[in-house]
Amino acid sequence: MSDEEDVYSADGGDPEFVKRQEAKSSALDEQLKEYIAEWRKQRSKEEEDLKKLKEKQAKRKVMRAEEEKRMAERKKQEEERRQREVEEKKQRDIEEKRRRLEEAEKKRQAMMAALKDQSKNKGPNFTIAKKADPGMSLSSAQLERNKTKEQIEEEKKISLSFRIKPLNLEGYSIHKLQAKATELWETIVKLETEKYDLEERQKRQDYDLKELKERQKQQLRHKALKKGLDPEALTGKYPPKIQVASKYERRVDTRSYDDKKQLFEGGWENTYAEFVEYKWQEKQDRFAKRKKTKLPKWFGERPGKKKGEPESPEEEEVKKDDEDADAGGDDEEEEEGEEEEEEEAEEEEEEEEEEEEEEEEEEEEE
C-alpha cells in the first residue's frame, strides 16, 4: 500500500464522492417530502369526498323516510276515501232500492184504485195494455253488445274525462312547477312499480297453472291406462265415447228392433234350444250317411271241419266272394280312393261350418 492510499483511507474517502452522495440523499429526501405532501393532499380530498357522500346518504335516508311516510299517509287517505265511496255507494243503492219500492207501491195503489173505479163504472171489462218498449226487455249484456262503435267511443271519452284530470299550470311559479313535476314523476314511478309487480305475479300464476294442468294430464293418463283406454282418451275436451259393442266384432248387427226385444224378453232360450236341436239333427244325419263297412268273414276252412265233409253253403259264398274280389279288385280300389277324397272334402266343409257356427254363438253370447 502506497503513502497516498494510506492518507486516503485515513481521511475517510474521497470528498467529491461524499458530496455526490449527500446531494443524492438530499434530492431523494426532497422527492419523498413532495410525495408525502401530495399523498396527504389526496387523502384529505378523499376524506372530504367521503364525508360529503355520507352526508348525502344521510340526507337521502331522511328523504326516503319522509317519502315513505308521505306514501303511507297517501295510501291511508286513498283507503279511507275508497271506504267512504263504498259506504256512499251502499247508501245510494239502499236509497235507490227504497225509491223503487215506493214507486212500485204507488203503482200498485194506483192500479188497485183503477180496479175499484172500473168495478164501479159499468163499462167494458177489459183494458188495452200499451205495448212495452222493446229495449226494456233486453238485459244489460245484450244492450252492451248492441251498442255501436260511435257509442262505445263516446262512453270511452266520457270515462277518460273523469279519470284524466287537466293540469291547470297557469300562474305557477318555478318552485310550484318543480313540485308538480316531482309529483308526476313519483306517480309514474309508483304506477310502473305496480305494473311490474302485477306482470311478475301474472307470470308466476301462468307457470303455476301450466304445472297444475300438466299434473292433471298425467293423472288422467294413469286413470285411462287403469281403465284399459287410450292414454289420451281422458285428456281431451270431451269424454270418451261409451263402447256398446266389442271392438273385435267383425260384422254390423243386422237384427231388427223386434228381434232384439224378443231376445231380451226371453227369446234367447228359444233361440238356443232351436240351435241345439239343429246341431243334433245335423250330427244325426251325418251319422246316418256314414260309410258302412262289413266285417270280414272267416277265411280258409271252417273251424271244426273234418276231412271229407262236404262244403257248407257259407263256404261256397266265401269262395264266390273271393273270386269276385279278385276280378274287381282294381275297380274297387279306385272307387275307394274317390270315396276317401269325397269324405275328406266333406269333413273339411263340416269343420268350417262348425267353426262358423261356434263364432256366431260367441257373438250372440257377447
Automatic annotation (TrEMBL):
Basic and acidic residues composition-biased segments: 43-56, 63-108, 247-261, 299-310
Pfam families: Troponin
GO biological process, one term: sarcomere organization
Secretion signal, residue range per the UniProt entry: none
Gene Ontology CC, one term: troponin complex
SUPFAM superfamilies: Troponin coil-coiled subunits
Acidic residues: bias regions: 323-366
This protein's UniProt keywords: Muscle protein
Keyword S-adenosyl-L-methionine set for record: no
GO molecular function: tropomyosin binding
Assigned protein family: Belongs to the troponin T family.
Protein role: Troponin T is the tropomyosin-binding subunit of troponin, the thin filament regulatory complex which confers calcium-sensitivity to striated muscle actomyosin ATPase activity.
Protein name: Troponin T
